[in-house]
Write a structure and sequence with these properties.
Layout lengths: L3 E5 L9 E3 L7 H7 L7 H4 L9 H30 L10 E3 L3 H13 L6 E7 L3 E4 L12 H13 L9 E4 L2 E10 L1
Antiparallel strand pairs: 1-4, 2-7, 3-6, 4-7, 5-6
Helix pairs in contact: 1-3, 3-5
């Protein structure tokens, strides 16, 4: 059974811990991106005579916008996956991993630059479907047309990453932590 490396960013895990997406559960990415979360009361704000946002509201507005842009990207990716590759794991119901220890370290460096603190690196195995995609092919999170995003999503799902390339590995089904490799 192949071994993969998963970076833990929210809560430490232990050996033999199970991540099970075989019963329709979603991952943290789905909950953050597609969940409503705390949103600004726009109906009240827009009725004020002079529109003035507090620094907190401005920060929240940016967060809302980023969440919406990423939600559109993930929705487009899911539509194309369901249409063209229904046997691939969903990005909204999977464990994200890397193929090698060195690839996991490269992802850790990227996460840390983006302000996402990594707690652990763990080895996992899975009994579910696996897809290794090239993250550089993900649809853009800019203002491009949905038709462009659909074409980009098709390219992402149609072009599995080469073995030697840094890829994001999607582990569907049931994954088990076989070893805590490193704690940061």
């Amino acid at each position: 059974m192949p071994v993969f490396y998963h970076l833990v960013t929210r809560q430490a895990v232990h050996e033999r811990q199970v991540f099970d997406f075989s019963d329709g559960r979603t991952n943290a990415q789905a909950r953050v991106i597609l969940g409503r979360g705390e949103q600004l009361p726009w109906d009240q704000i827009l009725k004020t005579p002079r529109l003035a946002l507090t620094p907190t509201q401005t920060t929240q507005l940016r967060g809302d916008r980023d969440r919406q842009v990423h939600a559109l990207r993930e929705t487009v990716l899911e539509l194309v996956r369901l249409r063209d590759h229904p046997d691939y794991p969903s990005r909204l119901a999977c464990l994200f991993a890397a193929r090698t220890y060195d690839h996991a370290l490269a992802w850790r460096e990227l996460f840390e630059r983006e302000g996402r603190h990594v707690l652990q690196m763990v080895q996992v195995t899975t009994t579910g479907p696996v897809f290794a995609g090239d993250a550089r092919l993900l649809p853009a999170t800019d203002g491009s047309a949905v038709s462009v995003k659909l074409a980009q999503a098709k390219r992402y799902w149609d072009t599995p990453a080469a073995k030697d390339q840094l890829s994001e590995v999607l582990l569907g089904g049931r994954s088990v932590v076989t070893r805590v490799v490193r704690t940061f």
